[in-house]
Amino acid sequence: MGSEDLFHKRKAKSVKQLARNKSKRAPYDKVLIVCEGTKTEPYYFTDARNYHKINTLNTRSVC
Questions:
Q1: Residue pair 57/49 in contact by the 8 Å Cβ criterion
Q2: How do residues 5-62 score in pLDDT, each as one tens digit?
Q3: Cβ of 60: how many Cβ atoms within 10 Å?
Q4: Least buried of 27, 44, 50, 57, by fewest C-beta within 10 Å?
Q5: How far is CA 38 from the centre of its chain?
Q6: Model confidence pLDDT, tens digit, residues 21-35
């Protein structure tokens, strides 16, 4: 009924094929801005991010 393809079997994958791909994107530049206030300064940075339409900018405050 069905034909058996003995020569079209699935081949075992090598370690190189199973390894994850390396990242192609360059890492982000980091800029440290030190300021005194902890309440209003994060708002300035998030507003600047929204104004300049930089979606990839990460802001975080460290007290």
A1: yes
A2: 666 677 778 888 888 888 888 877 777 777 787 788 888 888 888 888 887 777 766 6
A3: 6
A4: 27
A5: 28
A6: 888 888 777 777 777
